[in-house]
Amino acid sequence: MTEFTVWAPSPDRVQVDVDGELHEMTRSSDDWWHAEVACRADARYGFVLDDDPKVLPDPRSPRQPDGVHERSQLWTPAPGAWTDSGWAGRSICGGVIYELHIGTFTPAGTFDAAIDKLDHLVALGVDFVEVMPVNAFGGTHGWGYDGVLWYAVHEPYGGPDGLVRFVDACHARGLGVLIDAVFNHLGPSGNYLPRFGPYLSAGHNPWGASINLSDAGSDEVRAYIIDCALRWMRDFHVDGLRLDAVHALMDNTAVHLLEELAAETDALAGQLGRPLSLIAESDLNDPRLITPRDRGGYGLTAQWDDDIHHAIHTAVSGERQGYYADFGSLETLAQTLKHGYFHAGTYSSFRHRRHGRPLDTATIPATRLLAYTLTHDQVGNRAVGDRPSQRLTFGQLAVKAALALGSPYTAMLFMGEEWGSSSPFQFFSSHPEPELARATAEGRKAEFAEHGWDADEIPDPQDPATFERSKLKWAEATAAEHGRLLRTYRQLIALRRDEPDLADPWLDHLSIEFDERQRWIVLQRGALAIACNLGTDAVSIPVTGELVTAWDDPDIGAATTTLPGHSFAIVRTVQPRAAG
């Protein structure tokens, strides 16, 4: 016998349809419904609410073989599917994370195809793979942030069995796996949760109705989220989660959902005997996210740091539009790298108000923040999804890599960055509903038309060509300058692993010098100086010593090093400079 359960306080009657046969369910005092049914191990099932004959998928569906509008399916891993019993896990802090999208990482766009590229990541030297959302969402392809069945794995990628094979293969190669989880909103296609109970609140965030985290009935909604998060780590053996846009979680309770989730995650890590990590994407610049719970924080492991991205990108590229307006100078770059946040209780011209709060660098190590020069957001949310590699020189790309990978922060790359991929990463979707498809396409064009873009230049997210254009071109990875950049990334990542000075996580030990006019900056990490020339002309920098690695050939003299334009050099200095 198999027990079927569902939390459904809204309907007065619930039946479970198992392989086409209806069975009455019994309601308990906590609004959970129960029924025991003799059925196959892979039975298809769903729930019928009141008098509506539509069979709805299970809110906690383990598998959706026919899409988010159809019946669920019972699922457990095949015997012997897991071979990673020897995987001890690892902390993300100080490591290198590689963000990828399963659908565009390879031509086939599946977990199994991604497995074939894992040896490339091992050779690159990364420690973790961070996979953009793989929960079930409407259509065949999309970014995954419009998921509606958070427990199920997107079938076109390979479903839950494919995810098992992928995680197991990563662990066999020494790679940890992080899953991007979206708990702040639900997608527009296939969201049947409000039929069951109060999953949504009256509030709204930029993507629709907010999740009910503190209104009536929210205890079960919070449990729904926490159980889902733990399931990825327990049942699919993943090593942690990236939590999407946590600033959009509207929680007025005394114990914030994030604090509760962090405590449950730490407890699970203790049970499993391996580290588990939670990484927040947050727009708040709020240190409480990564402050330990015993010091009044939420106790998350780490946080994406967009200020570091903005500071590096604008200093190298010269872009100043939108939220880049406060960034661009080397002084801003130095301040951000030295203090973690640029906006720390300071005025943000983009927001027209003060923003952020200072980070206590004496107690919170830099490895609690992620440094990157590229993410899916910082490419895909541009009007035409263009990468920096489509506008910058290879030397500029190498300088950005040296600044991020040479910093004390936990580092992250976006797929294809390591060779300067020429493929855009555009916003794409495949909503099967004509009205939703049209609204998505028109909304995208209207959004950027307000910022001066020609609507005809904005890719149609529903056009399959938009999806195809966004796939990596692996043939270029080792060609000419692409291959040279790839070798540079490998060298920089290897240095993070092999040089003790680059493992120092304390910002108080970091010294930075720069010259705004000549466009050079030096990060001093113990005896290692990471010297970067962001300008087009050669400059002489007051650094000398033994060359460790470089882009282009520096001229190291007795007192200075001359760097060609758009290049960097890492030098082992004769005497370490004092921190400052």
Q: Write the CATH fold name of the largest domain.
A: TIM Barrel
Query: What is the CATH homologous superfamily assignment of the largest domain?
Result: Glycosidases
Number of domains: 3
Class per helix and strand makeup: alpha/beta
**Adjacency order of strands in the biggest sheet:** 8-9-12-15-16-17-20-21
Protein name: Malto-oligosyltrehalose trehalohydrolase
InterPro entries: DUF3459 (IPR022567), GH13_cat_dom (IPR006047), Trehalose_TreZ (IPR012768)
EC number: 3.2.1.141
Organism: [Mycobacterium] fortunisiensis
Secondary structure layout plus pairing:
Layout: E1 2-7, E2 14-18, E3 21-24, E4 26-27, E5 32-37, E6 44-49, E7 72-73, E8 96-100, H1 102-105, H2 111-115, H3 118-124, E9 128-131, E10 135-137, E11 147-153, H4 159-172, E12 176-181, H5 193-196, E13 200-205, E14 208-211, H6 218-234, E15 240-243, H7 257-272, E16 277-280, E17 302-304, H8 306-317, H9 330-339, E18 346-348, E19 353-355, E20 369-371, H10 376-380, H11 394-405, E21 410-414, H12 434-449, H13 464-469, H14 480-498, E22 510-515, E23 520-525, E24 528-533, E25 539-541, E26 545-550, E27 555-556, E28 561-563, E29 567-573
Parallel strand pairs: 8-9, 8-21, 9-12, 12-15, 15-16, 16-17, 17-20, 20-21
Antiparallel strand pairs: 1-5, 2-3, 2-6, 4-5, 6-7, 10-11, 13-14, 18-19, 22-23, 23-24, 24-29, 25-28, 26-29, 27-28
